[in-house]
Structure formats: structure tokens, C-alpha cells
Design a protein that fits this description.
Blueprint: E1 3-5, E2 15-20, E3 25-27, E4 34-41, H1 48-58, E5 62-68, H2 71-81, E6 89-91, H3 95-103, E7 131-136, H4 145-151, H5 180-193, H6 195-200
């Protein structure tokens, strides 16, 4: 199996999903399928070999062309390409991004075996699903305690603590427009605090 990896940009997604779009050049029945598929993915780079190994075991005669980038860039690419997308399948994208694609009727129906066992919050709730989640991650604050100690500062204990002027210029996060991790963080604030309070954070 050929596995060609396209552009690589480190990034992460909060809820991974599998869904179909575009039109493949694969033929044959499930036991003897062959051909080629283009996969767009936001899966962490180090996890891609795991997915490829599993796929190759089931479909040894299908060649995969892997295009990897961050969640926001993969979503923007799909939206820009529309019906002319080169993607046949997408591995690993946030559920919120999938909903944006679903609104534009860009997703083909996809109901994996055992999908009924997945809680509804982690999959498309339509009768015939178009995506199903397979991973949920959490976010939090990471603190360099050594550097804060040098500055004589106590570590923050909550998101609200980050508003303290003493931390000004010391905080960094991924941009939510292009990073799944950044988007997750903003989404978490909105859900925890409400739009008005989170906006001030």
C-alpha cells in the first residue's frame, strides 16, 4: 500500500470523527476492494501510522493518499473545494467542524458497524449517520512553574485568574481560527461561563 503524506502542520482536535465525502476510485466488494482513496486528516501526526496499519489490515489493496493539516485548515480546505474536493474520506475532525460541513450538505452517509453503541452526543443524530466520533480530549492550563517562581508569581488556578494583569504578556494559546485546540479552548469558555463573561476572558 502506498501512503503519501502531504503537508504536515502540528495541531489537534477535540472530538475525532470519521465521515465520507467526495467520490472514491475504489471498486470491488468488501473482501476484495482495490483502488485509491484520498484522506484529509487532522489526526495527530504520530497517530497516523496506527490508523494506516489498521486500514491496511482490512484493505491491503487500497492505496491511501494522506493530506494532513490542522483542524481549521482542513475544514477551510473542504469548504473552499466544495463539491470539487479531492477528499474521499476525512479522518479526525472536530464535531463542530463536521456540523459546518453537514450544513452545506457536503457529507455522504456513513454508518459504521456498531454506531448504535456510540452515545448520541458523540455522533450524528440523524437516522442515517454521516459521522461518528472515536475520541474525546480535554483541555486545561499548563504552567511553567519554574519560570513563574523566578518572577515571584503564583500559578493561576482558574481561567478567571488569567485576567490578572500580573500574567499579561505571559500567556499563549493556539489561534482558534486555525487550530482545533484553540477552538476547543474558546468553546469551553463559552460553555462554562456564557458568552458575555467568556468574552471578557
Amino acid at each position: 500500500m502506498k501512503k503519501r503524506v502531504g503537508k504536515t502542520v502540528l495541531g489537534s482536535a477535540c472530538a475525532f470523527a470519521l465521515f465520507g465525502c467526495g467520490s472514491s476510485s475504489v471498486s470491488g466488494d468488501e473482501s476484495g476492494m482495490s483502488g485509491e482513496l484520498t484522506v484529509y486528516t487532522a489526526i495527530e501526526e504520530e497517530l497516523i501510522p496506527v490508523y494506516l496499519e489498521s486500514f491496511e489490515e482490512q484493505y491491503p489493496n487500497i492505496d491511501l493518499n494522506i493530506v494532513r493539516d490542522s483542524t481549521g485548515i482542513i475544514t477551510a480546505k473542504l469548504l473552499a473545494e466544495g463539491e470539487n474536493t479531492e477528499a474521499d474520506v476525512v479522518w479526525g475532525l472536530q464535531a463542530s467542524n463536521l456540523l459546518a460541513l453537514e450544513e452545506k450538505d457536503m457529507l455522504a452517509e456513513y454508518s459504521p458497524e456498531g454506531v448504535e453503541e456510540i452515545p448520541e452526543i458523540f455522533r450524528d443524530d440523524a437516522e442515517s449517520t454521516k459521522w461518528a466520533g472515536n475520541l474525546v480530549t480535554a483541555s486545561g492550563i499548563t504552567v511553567n512553574t519554574t519560570e513563574l517562581e523566578k518572577m515571584g508569581l503564583e500559578p493561576p488556578n482558574s481561567y478567571e485568574d488569567l485576567l490578572d494583569p500580573k500574567y499579561q504578556g505571559l500567556i499563549a494559546m493556539a489561534h482558534p481560527a486555525s487550530s482545533g485546540t484553540g477552538y476547543l479552548q474558546v468553546s469551553t469558555w463559552l460553555q462554562m461561563m456564557g458568552e458575555e463573561e467568556a468574552g471578557s476572558t
